[in-house]
């Protein structure tokens, strides 16, 4: 089952254009939707999850019209929203049972089995009797996946799931996501490049409501080969380097400032070529150096 989004647009009443002609084709597997805060990711996720209306455009999941046939979508959907509220005094098992009833799993024995399997899958079985209010951030997010997987969804939407998790919890959460069936369309919305790098076979970059780029992460990275250059600079030089070059990122590495610059040829003395990674590709895209259409002729710089 494929998710097809065509020219989806949304403007909020205050004038913010959150989505502008978003077109995406998403096959089963993990799809990373990467973009900075405010890009429109949550708006897109909420629209697909039937929680808000678009102004125009279309979306289909298989032959289901996502924007019109909301009941059908809800039967196929699992959703972990960005701000996932829990009843703090209820145990994980109790809430999951309750949500399973709401999902229509009415047979008590079947429900017990489903709940127990999901608690195992998300590594929460030992904590099933504990109040949700006592859960760590990582446990909470794993519980979020457990409830999203109720009813065997064909479309699973997870919105910014790793924000605020410590490194160990992130690894656990990644492992959980990567074990989800290959025939499910999983959309992972995030501003964290490594989430996409570690998990996704397909991705898109969204910024200011527009899709800037789609494709396989590795292919996107490959297009930058020979175009990313590195130099360590003194803090006092940074402004000059930024004015003279197409800087895509600056980062402190062991107390020194490391600059990555985009350029079809060497930007000059002191720069050395680096193997691009997904972070370079992401920042180069956001800064307008990489796009789906053939790149424009190089602008003179310096
Ligand atoms: P992201 O999830 O990528 O951070 P959002 O979809 O939350 O992006 O937001 C996209 C843009 O729409 C932002 O500029 C945000 O401020 C604006 N926005 C989001 N929700 C609303 C709303 N309910 N009313 C007005 N503007 C909104």
Tag the structure with descriptive keywords.
Rossmann fold, 14 strands, single chain, disordered C terminus, 10 helices, four-stranded antiparallel beta sheet, binds adenosine-5'-diphosphate, 302 residues, 2 domains, alpha/beta
Structure description:
- With 302 residues, the chain is α/β, with parallel strands linked by helices.
- The chain has two domains: 3-215, P-loop containing nucleotide triphosphate hydrolases (Rossmann fold, 3-Layer(aba) Sandwich), CATH 3.40.50.300; 221-286.
- The chain is built from ten helices and 14 strands.
- It has helices at 41-48, 70-76, 92-102, 108-121, 137-148, 167-178, 193-199, 217-222, 238-244, 278-286; strands spanning 3-11, 17-26, 29-34, 56-61, 64-65, 77-80, 155-159, 185-190, 202-207, 210-215, 228-233, 246-253, 256-262, 272-273.
- The strands form three sheets. A six-stranded mixed sheet has the order 6-7-8-3-9-10, sandwiched between helices. A four-stranded antiparallel sheet has the order 2-1-4-5, covered by helices on one side.
- Helix 3 crosses helix 4 (108-121) and helix 5 (137-148) runs parallel beside helix 6 (167-178).
- The radius of gyration is 22 Å and the shape is globular.
- Residues 12, 14, 16, 18, 35, 37-43 line the site of adenosine-5'-diphosphate (ADP).
């Amino acid at each position: 089952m494929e998710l097809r989004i065509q020219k989806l647009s949304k403007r909020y009443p205050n004038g913010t254009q959150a989505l502008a002609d978003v077109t995406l084709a998403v096959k089963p597997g993990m799809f990373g939707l990467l973009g900075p805060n405010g890009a429109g990711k949550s708006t897109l996720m909420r629209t697909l999850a039937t929680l808000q209306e678009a102004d125009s455009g279309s979306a289909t999941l298989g032959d289901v019209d996502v924007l019109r046939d909301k009941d059908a979508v809800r039967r196929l959907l699992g959703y972990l929203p960005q701000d996932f509220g829990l009843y703090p005094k209820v145990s994980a098992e109790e809430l999951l049972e309750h949500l399973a009833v709401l999902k229509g799993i009415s047979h008590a024995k079947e429900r017990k089995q489903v709940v127990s399997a999901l608690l195992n899958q998300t590594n929460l079985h030992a904590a099933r009797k504990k109040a949700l209010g006592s859960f760590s951030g990582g446990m909470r997010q794993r519980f979020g996946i457990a409830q999203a997987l109720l009813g065997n969804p064909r479309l699973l939407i997870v919105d910014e799931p790793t924000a605020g998790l410590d490194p160990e919890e992130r690894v656990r959460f990644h492992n959980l996501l990567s074990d989800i069936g290959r025939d499910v369309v999983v959309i992972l919305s995030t501003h964290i490049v490594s989430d996409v790098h570690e998990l996704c076979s397909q991705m898109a970059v969204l910024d200011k409501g527009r899709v800037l780029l789609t494709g396989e992460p590795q292919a996107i990275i490959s297009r930058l080969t020979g175009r990313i250059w590195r130099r360590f600079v003194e803090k006092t030089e940074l402004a000059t380097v930024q004015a003279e070059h197409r800087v895509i990122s600056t980062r402190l590495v062991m107390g020194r400032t490391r600059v990555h610059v985009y350029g079809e040829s060497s930007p000059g003395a002191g720069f050395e070529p680096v193997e691009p990674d997904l972070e370079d590709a992401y920042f180069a895209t956001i800064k307008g150096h990489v796009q789906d259409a053939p790149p424009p002729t190089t602008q003179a710089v310096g």
